Amino acid sequence: MSSPDPRSNPDDFCYRHPDRQSFVLCQRCLRTICHECQTPMPVGVICPECLGEQKKEQRATNVRRMPKRIMRRASGDRPVATYAILIVTVALFLVGLIPGIGGEVRGFLAFNSIFTFPGHPFYPLEPWRIVTAIFVHSGIWHVALNMLALWALGRSLEPLLGRGRFLALYLLSAVGGSALVALLAPGVTVVGASGAVWGLLGAMLIIGRNLGVNVFPILVLLGINLVISFLPGAGISWQAHIGGGLVGLLIGWIFSRTRAVRQQRTQILLLSGVGVLLLALIFGVAPIVYG
Predict the structure, then answer these.
(1) In which residue ranges of the chain is CATH 3.30.40 found?
(2) Residue pLDDT, tens place only, 153-209
(3) Residue 93: which residues within 8 A CB-CB, separation 6 or more?
(4) Which are the catalytic amino acids?
(5) What phi and psi values does residue 143 have, to the nearest 5 degrees?
(6) Which of 32, 101, 103, 189 has the highest local Cβ count within 10 Å?
(7) What topology is assigned to 6-65 in CATH?
(8) Which top CATH class is 81-290?
(9) Is 190 helix (H, G, I), strand (E, B) or coil?
């Protein structure tokens, strides 16, 4: 039986704030709660503890109802392709350190436009070099800086784009770097993932701009890298950097303009067109230079 003085009845005081009198009950646990502890619901109010339990129940229900396809996508946010590229690149670099084998590995995978001319009398046609050059490097700092950039960019871009699009971006950027080397520096041998990494930077710039992200740090990074590429004695192929970066900008634009599901075929056709155009450029330059 309640006391005539409400202040002497503990049931008329908030269970979380005993000094605050209230006559409102949580609709789930029926405990007294003050105004600060009340969360309005369609019918009545509930206390913070019941609200937390209700949210947990709602999340569990949503997971059970979530289509398997969406669940697979949500659980596939790990940048697996980024890690795979990084592991392969570092492994090949370590193999390249083995005396008597390392030089042959780099020589077999490095890019030189002379290997893209089918009719050359002394050099065989070895088209794989257009891409494989990104997996070999000239030194520890070369591979370390490129892999650090790949790790930093890939962790953001791959979950955003998906593994297939990310791989297409990385490989097409590599081909773009080889294409500009073949066009502006024929006969020069190049190695390294710089062109592909610059492609990631270029795509990140366009995609970030479309998402409303501050892209100024990316512009600064591109500017610093570009200046370093032109320093005397740097030994860096600025052609590969710029070629990969330009292709990355183009692919980033394609991705940003073909985001809808109904545009997936258009996206694939445009990416295929970029690849065909780059290959045509590489194999079209070789006969002119070496023919």
Answers:
(1) 6-65
(2) 898 899 989 999 999 999 999 999 999 999 999 999 999 999 999 999 999 989 888
(3) 136, 137, 143
(4) 194, 241
(5) -70, -35
(6) 32
(7) Herpes Virus-1 (3.30.40)
(8) mainly alpha
(9) strand
Which two tokens mark 47? 């206390």
pLDDT of residue 221: 72
Q: Please give the helix or strand (H or E) that residue 68 lies within, else none.
A: helix 68-75
The per-residue pLDDT for 76 is 53
Do the Cβ atoms of 237 and 138 come closer than 8 Å?
Answer: no
Structure tokens at 215: 């892209």
Q: State the CB neighbour count (10 A cutoff) for residue 25.
A: 16
Q: What are phi and psi of 39, to 5 degrees?
A: -115, 115
- Cβ(196)–Cβ(170) below 8 Å: yes
Angle, CA of 193, 108 and 106, to the nearest 5°: 50
**C-beta of residue 232 within 8 angstroms of C-beta of residue 275:** no
CATH 1.20.1540.10 residue ranges for the chain: 81-290
The per-residue b/e assignment along 75-106, b for 16 or more CB within 10 angstroms, e otherwise, is eeeebebbeebbeebeebbeebeeeeebeebb
On whether the pTM is more than 0.90, the answer is no
Give dist(CA 95, CA 97) in Å, integer: 5
Token code pair at residue 191: 């190695």
Low-confidence residues of the chain, pLDDT below 70? 1-11, 61-76, 225-226, 228-235, 291
User: Residue 236: what pLDDT?
Assistant: 73
Phi-psi region of 30 (alpha: psi -120 to 50; beta: other; left: phi over 0): left
**Other CB atoms closer than 10 Å to residue 234's CB: what's the count?**
11
The pair of three-digit structure tokens given for residue 86, joined into one six-digit string: 């990084």
Mode of pairing for the β-strands spanning 45-46 and 39-40: antiparallel
